[in-house]
Design a protein that fits this description.
Length: 115
Amino acid sequence: MSTQADHGRELIPRPELTPDALRAALAVVAPGRLDEMQAMKDEAFAKAVEWQSLSPVQSWVQIWARDIEIARRPDLSSRYTQAENHLEHEDPAIAQEALRELSAVLEEALKAVRE
């Protein structure tokens, strides 16, 4: 597991950016998403072979590292859920702010895993 900045209480340490480490972390923070992760992994590896490029695998790692970062940090998870719940609010200003917040959470999580 890697070191990271202090973001308050974290459910688990940030995993290494390997498929096995990401899968193990997801099994703890969001086990209901394991089938989704496997399906996306299979698709990424198939595209990597077809395209003769590692970019689909690298994208898969970044997507799951980001999603695990959100799930393992209650501060980000709470912000993400609250924003997601307001995306289709009847007040367009609230929906727009929710979209901005959702984007900010995703960006913060991605930045954290790239540190």
